[in-house]
Amino acid sequence: MVRSTIIVRASDALPLAASVDDEQTEQALQEHKQQSKLIFRRITPNAEPRCSIESGPYTLHYLIAVNVVYLTIADKSYPRKLAFSYLDELSKEFANTYGPKVETVRKPYAFVGFDTFMSKTARLYRDSRTAKAATSNLDKLNDELQDVTRIMTKNMEELLWRGDSLDRMSHLSTSLKSESEKYRKAARNINFQAMLRQYAPLGAVGLLVIILLYWRFF
């Protein structure tokens, strides 16, 4: 079940919109909403664009699109595919409605009116069985949704309390690529030096012979 949703600007974690939750939901998710703020602060340009972060009985799913982070807190048993289908719908509607204004707003929750669309969409996805029936007609959306196995999954304790960062995997990939390039350059350099050591003496002798012949006959 989708419990709560918040939308923030990725560059500075400014809240743009959020679902209006009742008092019971607020109390139940208080700790997880604090965790979501820590997640927003850790997001960098190299962060995973889609990620599911497990935390106790809930999972925090987020999606990054065009400098906007869409995060929903759902039950741990709620299917990830449905969670990201929900976030995909939000991201498309939000971009169509407010896209050009995202970079210019300065006050928090400038797009509070988006709650109407979030509430309506959340109702479709609130129960996994109902959501599956509703999304069965969204063929285009399902085609565009990335394979669920490609969505990164992390544990909240690992992510927040052990100093891990959301872009660790991306940095690791970049580092491996850089190291691989350094290795290739070093290998080319070693091969070139080996070739010089092998052929330099012959080249020197050949050059000396040419100089002697030139000096003798010309």
UniProtKB/TrEMBL annotation:
One of its GO terms (cellular component) is endoplasmic reticulum membrane. Residues 131-158 form a coiled coil. Residues 137-197 form the V-SNARE coiled-coil homology domain. It comes from Gymnopilus junonius (Spectacular rustgill mushroom). It is found in: Endoplasmic reticulum membrane; Golgi apparatus membrane. One of its GO terms (molecular function) is SNAP receptor activity. It is a single-pass type IV membrane protein. InterPro entries: Longin-like_dom_sf (IPR011012), Longin_dom (IPR010908), Sec22 (IPR044565), V_SNARE_CC (IPR042855). Pfam families: Longin, Synaptobrevin. This is Protein transport protein SEC22. Keywords: Coiled coil, Endoplasmic reticulum, ER-Golgi transport, Golgi apparatus, Membrane, Protein transport, Transmembrane, Transmembrane helix, Transport. It comes from the Eukaryota. PROSITE patterns: LONGIN, V_SNARE. Belongs to the synaptobrevin family. Residues 6-118 form the Longin domain. The chain crosses the membrane at residues 199-217. GO terms for biological process: endoplasmic reticulum to Golgi vesicle-mediated transport; protein transport; retrograde vesicle-mediated transport, Golgi to endoplasmic reticulum.
